[in-house]
Design brief:
Strand content: 15-25%
Largest sheet: 5 strands, parallel
Number of strands: 26
CATH topology of the largest domain: Rossmann fold
Structural class: alpha/beta
CATH superfamily of the largest domain: ANL, N-terminal domain
Number of domains: 3
CATH class of the largest domain: Alpha Beta
Radius of gyration: 23 Å
Helix content: 25-40%
Strand order of the largest sheet: 4-3-5-6-7
Distance between the termini: 51 Å
Length: 547
């Protein structure tokens, strides 16, 4: 039998923008968003509300209609959340892109999310322009996000044009069913059966997520949270946590354009940062850096890490750098669950590698075996399935994936194999059914790379892509391709690597090398037996380790 939720929280029945500006229990002129590189650049509640109302008017003047998708292609900036809220307030749907995307990926993103309008940094314009032009998006729908004073290329309009069209109120929604079916974001998720899919995050998902995470431990936190965010603003880890939550809560956040270790550590000490949201590569970078002797993390009162599992030793090492007694816990979350869904409640602590003591309030869970049979019980491994207010209703324009991922009882099948320990009652991830590769906190879907390689049909007969552990204690992986050459051809390792680097983002490169085989191991039904490839790769690494 499923474990039904024990905690039930009342949830908002209003749109995300109204919700974001619905708390006036703090000074509306107190800066909330801070540019970590330029402290003269800040945004308060009052300024944010005015900016959003101007952007609502601007987006409408630019031709945005209800349900139109807009994309931001930019590194982090304090104005990024304002554009997000302004676009959503005008009735649009946000779909950010990774600044590392190449033309091939931009075009796929435009098609799957049905992007109609771009806000893009001038330095990233060439790639976006080529992709957008190929997909029929006119130049008038591409605005230059020159927030750092850059020149606007001839023939384009600055995003500031959107701020010059007066002010208008945003679209307000109070009907519960409409809130559940109206999207604020279409976020790229893993493409385990092909290219990445597009998850539909609704107003209800977003407001429910903030409400539950903000309420869980509110009565136990006796300090004013001060946050720093180096996490990319196109990612579910920041939607809505960085785009909306700071203005709703009144908690200050310092935005990093990109992660840089010394800037990050010095800011924690200088600004007395209290809360850290981390991914394992950041943790590893910190604990292995001599800079921890130069800068203090003793202001940090709470740390949570997600996106990939982290070994318990690394967890303990970072915890020792923080304030005495500060809990450092791991969380489990997905794009499809609006970020974290399994977690620890403050002040709970853990050093066993668990991803949580419980699931979010209002959320039901069950474990199923390979046949989909309910095997929910302590100490039993099974695929985690969840349903609740933060679980998206489906993938955009992808009925096949929806039917495969949601069952008749409304549970989303996550693909993560987990169990709940019968003694300590904690949850652990032991495997992942979906064969995603984790690279520095990003997810790489093997079928996407395999598809690119198989486009080289004159020289590549077959291929398979797997992840290789970089080193013990790290969950980050190197990407390796196994390739079968076409008879009579002699494609080289460097040529195979170039096929990927020319079309895909840098974190998808074949850092684990290329291995040429006579045949890819497959089951009688044609499924690639990647387990065999991983076992052979492990033997190879074991031999090298002994040399």
């Amino acid at each position: 039998m499923p474990w039904l939720h024990e905690d039930t929280y009342p949830l908002p029945e209003e749109d995300l923008v109204t919700f974001t500006f619905g708390n006036t229990d703090y000074d509306p002129d107190e800066p909330i968003y801070h540019d970590i590189d330029n402290e003269s650049r800040t945004i308060s509640w009052s300024q944010g509300r005015t900016l959003v109302r101007k952007l609502v008017a601007g987006f409408r003047k630019a031709g945005m209609k209800q349900g139109d998708c807009f994309s931001i292609t930019s590194f982090n900036d304090i104005m990024y959340p304002m554009v997000f809220l302004g676009g959503v307030g005008a009735g649009g749907v946000f779909s950010g892109t990774n600044p590392a995307y190449r033309v091939h990926e931009i075009r796929h993103h435009i098609r799957t999310a049905q992007v109609k309008l771009f806000i893009v940094e001038p330095e990233l314009l060439d790639v976006v322009l080529e992709g957008a032009t190929a997909e029929g998006i006119p130049v008038k729908n591409i605005f230059i996000f020159n927030v750092r004073g850059q020149a606007v290329p001839e023939g384009f309009r600055s995003w500031e044009w959107l701020l010059e069209q007066g002010e208008e109120d945003w679209v307000r929604i109070t009907d519960l069913e409409t809130l559940k079916t109206t999207d604020v974001a279409r976020l790229t998720t893993s493409g385990t059966t092909g290219l990445p899919k597009t998850a539909c995050q609704s107003h209800y998902n977003a407001t429910s997520y903030h409400t539950m995470t903000a309420t869980i431990s509110r009565d136990k936190i006796d300090w004013e949270p001060r946050n720093i965010s180096p996490l990319p603003m196109f990612h579910v880890a920041t939607v809505p946590s960085i785009h909306s939550s700071p203005l709703r809560s009144g908690h200050k956040v310092w935005i990093m354009r990109r992660f840089e270790l010394e800037t990050f550590l010095s800011a924690i000490e200088r600004l007395k940062i209290t809360n850290l949201g981390m991914v394992p590569p950041l943790v590893i970078a910190i604990i292995n850096s001599p800079l921890t002797k130069k800068y203090s993390l003793k202001s940090v009162r709470q740390v949570a890490a997600g996106a990939a599992p982290l070994d318990a030793n690394s967890q303990r090492r970072l915890q020792q750098l923080c304030a005495p007694g500060a809990p450092f816990t791991q969380v489990m979350g997905l794009t499809e669950t609006t970020s974290a869904i399994c977690l620890f409640y403050y002040p709970e602590s853990d050093d066993t590698g668990s991803v949580g003591s419980r699931f979010m309030p209002n959320t039901d869970v069950k474990l199923v075996d390979d046949e989909g049979k309910d095997v929910t019980d302590f100490d039993v491994r099974g695929e985690l399935c969840v349903r609740g207010p933060t679980v998206i209703r489906g993938y955009f324009n992808n009925e096949k994936a929806n039917k495969e991922s949601w069952d008749e009882d409304g549970y989303f099948h996550t693909g993560d194999i987990m169990y709940r320990d019968g003694k300590n009652k904690l949850w652990y991830i032991v495997d992942r059914k979906k064969e995603l590769i984790k690279v520095r906190g990003f997810q790489v879907a093997p079928p996407e790379l395999e598809g690119v390689l198989l486009e080289e049909k004159d020289r590549i007969a077959d291929c398979a892509v797997i992840g290789l552990k970089v080193k013990p204690g790290s969950d980050s992986e190197d990407v390796r391709a196994y390739v079968v050459r076409k008879p009579g051809t002699n494609i080289t390792e460097e040529e195979v690597k170039k096929l990927i680097s020319d079309k895909l983002a840098s974190y998808k490169r074949l850092t684990g090398g290329v291995v040429f085989l006579n045949a890819i191991p497959k089951s009688p039904t044609g499924k690639i037996l990647k387990r065999i490839l991983r076992e052979e790769a492990q033997k190879e690494m074991d031999v090298k380790a002994r040399l």
